[in-house]
Records
---
Amino acid sequence: MLKYGGRFENYFSRHHVTHIICSNLPDSKIKNLRSFSGGLPVIKPTWVLESVAANKLLSWIPYQLDQLASETKKQPKLSAFGFKSGPVLDDLEESISGQAVPQSGIATLRTSCSLEANIFGKAECTEEVEECHSVSDDPFHPNAAESTDQAPTYCMENHCEVELDAAVVGQSDAGYHSHISPCQDPKSDHNDCLEDHIIEESSSSKTIRPSTTGHSTLSDANFVENYFKFSRLHFIGTWRNRYRKRFLSSANGFKDMNPSRNAFATSQKTTIIHVDMDCFFVSVVIRKHPDLKDKPVAVCHSDNSRGTAEISSANYPARNHGVKAGMFIRDAKALCPQLVILPYNFDAYEEVADQFYDILHKHCNKVQAVSCDEAFIDVTDLRVEDPELFARAIRTEIHETTGCTASAGISGSMLMARVATRIAKPDGLCYIPSEKVDDYLHELPVKALPGIGHVLEEKLKKKQINTCGQLRLISKESLQKDFGVKTGDMLWNFSRGIDNRLVGVFQESKSIGADVNWGVRFNDLNDMKDFLLKLCKEVSLRLQGCGLKGRTITLKIKKRRSDAGEPVKYMGCGDCENLSRSVTLPMATDDVDVFQRITAQLFGYFHIDARDIRGAGLQASKLESADRNIRGHEKYSIRSWLVSSPARKSSMGKDVSEHMNGAGKGDQLYSDIGPPVQAKGSFSGGEAHVVHRATLPALHELDVGVIESLPPEVLSEINDLYAGELISFISKKKEKNAGNNVMDEEQSLSNPLVPPNKDFVHDAAEKIKSSEKEDEQYINKMIQGLPETSGSVTALLPETDSLMPSSLSQVDSSVLQQLPEELLADVLVSLPAHRRPDFMSNDVYLDHIRDQTGAIDFLPSNNLWVGNPPRWVDNFRLSSCQLLNRIAVLYNKSSPRGQFSSVLQLIMSEYPLDDGGDDAVNCLCELMKQYIKLKIETDVEEIYTCSCLLRRLTSRSELFLQVYNCIIPHLQAAVGETYGGDLNICFIE
Amino acid sequence: MERKDNNQAKAPQGEAARILTEFLEVAISCIIFLKGVYPHGAFERRRYMNVVVHRARHPQLRDYIHSSVNGLLPFIQKGLVERVVVIFFDNEDFPIERFVFKVNLNLSYGSKVEQSDLEFSLRSFLIKLPVSESLTKLLPRGCRWEITAYFRALPEASTSKDSELIWIPTDTKQWQQPPLITPIKSMNSEPLGVQLYLEHPSLSEPKP
């Protein structure tokens, strides 16, 4: 199935699933077919098999599920299949099956299964599972698959619905794109993925919707897609992505060449050329119409001369009439009645932009793209004699190749090059040498500087600053004070023509989103929800197109102001309130379902009437690369690592590996496009999904040494991928290597290989840190099982000594500290007997770490707390006073050790408390005093706890009352000295 | 000057100071939440170091806490800051309760800071804080609060960038008598030691 391009989907999704395959359906689903199938054909599995056998996509009509077929026969008019009306589909199928399908071994048949757990309620989930079992005679069961030698062994055991993607077959059909086309058709770029997605979605409806172009969300079901298809801003936005994919390699190339270039050191000598196409959007459209060249032309998406469509770009003759971008057509026509309005031609834009950059990259490898028609190039390293001549050559070539003109500005910095281009326009060239920078800047209006917008300009105007010359008179400090440190700095620098930015820094996009603020009208909340879903899809597709995932999701809503009437612009947004809400997820995502859930939630916060909504936007920010996606990536990297390790020959697992290889071919396709991750802790389906993307290398290609050193979790995961073959394979291998035939395979299987070093203890501890009780038990078991395991491992690998470290000093003490006491004891007990003494000395070491008091110097007079255990413990043990003896014993029981409060806590539970003499009181007082001295600076909390415990003890024992009375003045004095107050001692429970 | 700062930021103290300021921002927000100066709706639940904490929703409140604590960062790095105090005071600027963070940064500490260790220790504050409510005093209505920093020595006059000029003299009155101290939490994880304790007016304090 995979080999032929079919794919199994874990979750039902209208994007990916095209056919639902099953052999039986429960009654409830038959009755409610639409909600179950979402309008997709429900077909018997034999269709897949026979399609494979016929080597072409058969029409699914004869293979319809019997239960359904009878129903549709009864009601021929009520096509169960949504907007794909019957006759149209028939035509489509015919045209498809008429095509010569197989493209020289490239998989064309594409099936997908769907466990529809997400669209059904929980109650139905169980039913779903039952169903899975009932279809055990499914032809895609591994056994069957092997017999037909087509499906890989890891085909799902419990899949219940297989869906076949007709779209793939349509690949050969001219007007019918599919979203896996990038990997099948080497010509199409990956970054077209995005567009393809959109087209694919609309294409299914294209057949029945002959260009009924609606103009608002109300009338047009595919409004969102069309909106972006015809949007110029969208073109510019997505162009960046396209450019990056196309020229990224060369961009990286020069970065590597000059990694340590210092802006300050070379800024004197740099030569930067700024190239900007003249009124790009117009000149591209009219380049094939020389007759229009001198006539006023504007580009706009509509040519209704009374309309409120905005002009996006106008050529120079039109500009001479006062026509400007952003003007309504009717106003422009009033200014210039002979104005010719042309529509966008996005294909041409793309073509010209590519030519433009081809030329730039050809001449110079340091190119920074600003937009599709504007770029900086740094020619410093080329050592051009005459930059003007060089720029002229580029301009000529652009003109000859594209038929459009470009202007160029040359100067020492990006800022000045841009200023020069402004002067040069249209179709000119301007060179500002460094000594003339001041002259040019002096009269330049501040608005012309990059980074100065309306707001900043207004602020400056209020201060009577209109030109850079005036700006230069103001000190940096006062600029920083008025406009903030950064902006002030920028203003100061720019007004002097200082610009230290480097050419070639391609700015990564910080957020990806989709905004629609034209033509948005809703009748009710359901409309809005549908619209939001489409936005979610759009954003998700854009993210996938860029290979990114977002963590923060922001929903923006334009809400009509209550007093605002119908906007001047037809279907425009008018006067709106902008509302926005965002949420940050713990995990980055590009999943439509997640987006949908979050947006619905965010939208809920707004509490607004759907009729007041005039625009909506959804954005994903805090972008992360999708590669970092843990599951997929981890597998992937391990896989590539394994493959690169030298292949070893083995007779074992040969047929398995063959299978893997066979499957791998089909799989490779998927790993390239990286379908959206949908598995979210589902049934065992999740595993299969992963397998889809990661091609496993053959077992015999694996380097045993590498595998062995993997952490156990990873090892077991990989083992799962190989259906348990890995472990036995390794053990077999090892047998060979060791020449040891005693151990049989079963035994080695039962002894999972463990990396023989302290990492294991480490891992165990790590686990405990993050886990609950049941985990602890598990670890306990594991650790108790250590000696045996280590025994067997030792047998296997004579060179490795043992699992346990030879001394505790090798152990990461912070890990041991994290262990619960019982577990720590277990670990210590499990140490081999001959290392016990070792451990005893290390116990001290451990405690030493624990109380962190090593830094404090001890005077001879207060040395009771020196050492570990502190000296007083021995003193007390040897004392004749029973109470003191008892305290010394309690010290060893206390935890955390080294804190006197824990000793006092234990004393609290002793009953009865026997009294000692004055000696005992003095000893305890001295001990406490020294303890206070030790801790007062760093740990007043401990002192406080001790005092409170002591105070409680006073009610039980005369001795402690004496100690308390003796200590308190001393304590308060110490606290007063250090903290300027009195300790507020109270009872604590 | 700038280079020196950079070096300091890379030193273990710089790292510890950065973590400390971040922590202080969270902890102060939690204290404000705990004391109920603002309605509980003014806060939202967040997770910091894997503990549920409360963060102010109101941008101004959040900004006040953020900017005051971050304004301290350069001074903390230099070891100048001794105490950061959240003071709750009544209408007559008479302090009712003070939450004192006593900071001790070991400037001579040379080895690398274990960020996880430090965070683990600081986390205990955030766990202890919510359960220490019983130790605190009920505030009368109309209370106000402020963040005050106590320096070990007066900082030398610094450039505008350093101080951000956000610090203003406090109007809050001082107690006549030494206060009563109730420690809440102490920790010491080289190079940083932080202690949090409460200060209440002593019983002999003349009532205003």
Note: The mean pLDDT of chain A is 65.
---
Amino acid sequence: MASRNGTETAVRRGQTEKGDNSDSDSTSSSYSSSDYSDDLEPEWLDDIQKNGELFYLELSEGEEEAALAQATANQGVSTNHVRFSEKEAEIITEQNKKQRCGSRTKGEPTLKRLARILRRKRRPSQRRGGGKDGGKDSSSLSSPPASILKNQAGQRQGVMVQQQQLKEVCVYLNPKRLGGSSTPLSDRGGLLEALLGVVHRPGWSRGQGDPAAGRREERLTVHGLVPNSPAIKCGQILIGDVLVAVDDVDVTSENIERVLSCIPGPTQVRLTLETVGPVEGVSGGDSPSIHRLKASPPVSQLVRLLWGEDTAELQMSIGHIPHIVMYLSLKLDSASPQEEQEILYQYPVSEASGQLKGVRGIFLTLCDMLENVTGGRIISSSLLLGKHLVHVGYWKESNNLLVIGLPAERVPLLYLQTVVGGVVRTLKVMYGSLDSAFCKADHAPRLDHFFCLFFQQLIQPSRLTDSSSAPPPDISGTLFLDGLPAVRWLTLPPEIKMEVDTVLSDFESSDFGEMSEDFFGLRRLYVTLGSCLFYKSYLIANHLPKEDLLDVCLYCQHYCLLPLASDQRVGQLVIWREVFPQHRAQQRGHSGSSAPGYSQPHGRHFLLIVGLRHFMQCVLLEAGGCASPALGSPGPDCVYVDQVKATLLQLEVLEAGIEERLNAPPAPCLSCADWFLPAATARDRLDSLASSSPVLSKLAGAVKGSSAGSRGRSLFGEKARRSSPQRSLSDSGSEGQADGGSGSGSSMAPGLSPHSTPDSARKLGGRRDSLGSGGSDGSGGSGGLFKIPRMKHPNPFYLGTLKKILTERETEEMYNTMKLTSGAENTLFHYVMMETVQGIFIAPTHREVAQLSGSIHPQLIRNFHHCCLSIRAAFQQSLPPRGRRGADRSQSSRGLGPVKEHGVLFQCKPENWTDQRKPAPTMTYWVIGRMLLEPVPQEFYVCFHDSVAEVPVEMAFRLSFGLAL
Amino acid sequence: MMLQDGSTQLLCLTASSGVPLFTRGASKQLPFSVIGSLNGVHMFGGGQRVLLSSCETERGGKVVWRVFQDSVMLIAVNGGHQAGGGGGSSKEEELHLRRLLENVWNCMVLVLGQDELASARNVERLKRDLRSCFGLIDQLLEERQEGIMGNLTHCADCLLPPNPAALQEAVEGFTQAADSEFGCLMVHGRIAAATEKWWRLAPQEVVLLSALMRSLSASGSSSCDYPVFLPQGSPTVAHRLLRFQLLPGADVCVLCGPTPSLRRAESGLVGRFWSPMVETLRGCLAVGERCLPGSVSLRPDVLALLLINRETRRSVSCVRSSTHPQPSDPALPSKTRCWELLKLFYIFSTTRYFSQEETLCVSPEEKPQRGNTEDFALGFSHQPLQCYLVGEECKCFGLQTPQHQLFLLTPLSVPTFALRTVATQTLSAITGNTGF
């Protein structure tokens, strides 16, 4: 635990304590001040750091069970979950012995207490990383642990061809299952047989028995295994093995039943077995021959990393990949020369990064020189270290330079600047400025943790997720989606959305109990600036201004809080820290200029994040301003935390509704790429043939299409649709959709008709418009049509409009879903739609994507994201640089100029096509990105099958713009 | 800020000692301290086994380093654009600069031979000798002649004559008579016909010889005899390049050994083979910058096109001069701008999506150096076939087939969904008509 870092530490505790507390939370949603007795104080209170920050994370009971079940599913893989969690429990107990341990244990049933003692005995050995030097305190139950010592003694004596080896096996035991079974425990096997499934017949093992052991304490040789028992399922326990210890408690035939009976509930235990195996190249007698299988911990690496565990091991595993972060000083202080004094901060310390550190002179020189030569600050350079290409990103602030080196295969140069910008902004949100982040010595451990997370996410994201279930993470997808200045949004049915918003508004009004100023006649501590609510990594409600939302979201992204809430059930998460919202700081920088008479209050801001199960609420609080100024570094206030918790508990009622939404069929219905590929149907084969030689095949249709283009424009739509015989099939499908949209919109449920009619009108308008202005470049005419509906909502920050429109979209999508069932062909594979003003984006949910499982489809999505990186980089060109660096914006005609729309056509073939006679079938699809600066900045990325006619594509763009505004 | 907007400066130093050999480009030379530092950081990195390859600054400024044959260090510095426009185009700039460095090195080898450059015993003499390359290097830097894409694509710029068979026959007859296998006819600086062996030269050499021919014919002499080393084929043994002007704008050349003499070839061979062809040559010259014979009819909505044959490494490119500008059309980009856009779009597509297979003809020792620009295209799990861009000046469309790459620009008035048909039609019109 020496590596445990300073503040951002997180602790969990045993299940029992947690259960107590969540009970009390739910019953009393808001404490009155008199409730603060010792036994009711929140469990996170002890984790608050000296500077007031708190990062408290605890998994829920259900999650642990799931993890355990999973561990047993991965048969025979040794895990250290139980030890790990108990260790944490012990640490807490140690810290708070007086407050807690004494009083708490009283009420517990004896079994639990026994288990507790068991656990406590185990701790010291775990803390030494499994070293078994027997440094345990004396206790009635603990005999010296199963140790290597014992074995080594044997080795020294004997000249043995075969060697006794210890192996560890983890099995999942559930004593509760025994209750149902009718087999009496008093049977010969007892718990050993019933619970574990190991058959031991006393008296069989004369020959092998340890001569030192008496008859009564016979060694537990495995004589047989019970079918379907945990022992046989794990596949690691062999007949002839000797069970030496259970969870590091030595067992013999004497005490095994007692030990097993102490297992209170479903849990994972670690068995130590002595097995006979051939010597595997062990020459020296003193090398410990214990077999430790590579552990795949059931508690995901991510959680452990967040807890501040394991950083060393994870960092080691990427030590050979060059990556570094350095904060360098450009000032020379020759008065007091010290070694490496220009390095203000550096992480990590490894061989490969050492090489990069060695050439820091290059970075400093280039940074200084190139600004003079080219008139612009340096952004990046590319270096070749052996075989690794490394991109180095720079960020200069005052007299210091932040340098981040990343391997090129992880972060393409196109996107490096976005990544660096994200890190810088996150650090500024957390610490105010880079200087204050890096220049304080006591920040170093926290920064180490910060950058460990940063590099792990970029370089080996697979280690952070649960390896078994999740598909291999999509690095381009992560880069792309995290790089968007937006948060993933989940559209909700209107009634749920309204309830969520109401609950949040109630909370934000701060009109409750002692938070209202009338209560004590004091100034309130904090003003709630706003809050946002996540459910399983989707934003479902936001009452924060966009820039604040992005700041909060950057923090959450960086600490992986969003995937955490979606994959694992968070028992309880409480985070409190001071933050420095960026746009507030900037406004303060030139205050008074914008609105005379009003200036941003010079308050301090605090971020409170509370997570319960799948919900997570982020609240931005302000002290100073109209609330009382904050002094020193205040910790989280229980009242506020409990209010958020109460809000979340209140929201839990809605979980079913939200889940229903998540389980609903994909809203704009999606197709799986694999459906288009197999050459089963004649249509597909035709298609693939056509796409394989695009030169010749599309000509026939093309001639007609283009000739229609030169004719009268009003007729054009009809002509284009009817003319191309090749496309007729798919055309009619999409056409039917559009026509049906206008036709049957009114025949829908009556409540929907007011929405659907303008929609259909808009659709038609959109189409006509797109034709009139000659395709996608038209911007003049189209604006007018869309401006009219928008006039109703003059304030783009008002999220109510978003809500309303999203509901429109929802009805539209419901309608689409119905279409799919009627058999029309749907060619949409994937989409991402970003709304820059509100800072949100919409994409198919993880579950929707998972439902479309196939072999090609995940590839396609990876490809889509990779392509989006490039498309978005092309768009970025046309946007003015984001405020910060030299913001002189003038239209230049250099380069390719601003890009509005960019599309790429891809071809894919099934892997492992073995049929020699036929060429592999192919499928072609477009990935298209479209950016709209007017009327509001939006970006839209779609991926669809090639067979879709282009005019409907245009409509798809316009439709979505019309809907999501 | 020491460099002007968008200007490029080329620095050449000896790799071992850091002695500056020459600088070209940009009206104002960078101060020596800057040149020294630029070289110094690269050398320092080399000592630490870190190879610095490129650097990027805001607004598209770019520096690219490369050491050739462990003897010559070339550095290209691009000033970027003060006018803004973001840093997005610098990725494009990088390929441009990399090609420039390669071309400059090859050009130095072409003129001086590899031995003299690699050994560099006498730096002062080398400096003097290098002056003879300046004309060619300046041409590469400034890209004086519009519409030459070969320096960038490493595919020879071609002109498709109306009756290729007759010209081919004449070139082959002439080359044979001059005791050579390498002969080529150039019209308007583009190859109109060449012997089979000429096409077997490395694409970079063909491109470089074309550049040399252009600069020689620009000098106005009617014939010349120029010693050349072939950077890939014979970097140490010089050949003779005999060039004769047939008509203004039409030149023929052969690569040969010691015989025949320039005089004998000029008096005996040129008249014999080429005087019957004068009318054909005039027809060829009439094709002009369009590069395509009249039999190929292009759709009216193609502003500019670049067609590359990936197998033969040849390219045809042209920009339509707007014959009758319609008042309805919002200002179409100028011709110069069209060429620029075409180049930029070529770089954009090839760096991101399409493969550039010219790596085939790179010597193995240089491969790691070239491979050090990360290949974004390798990150795709599926193969990109086509791409398009809609900008503010025009629309761009690129497509790739196993044999061809086509890049074209169209006015904004062409609907996006029609781009693909325009492109496929154009491709089949050209390939069907000329067999390109």
Note: The first strand of chain B starts at residue 8 and ends at 14.
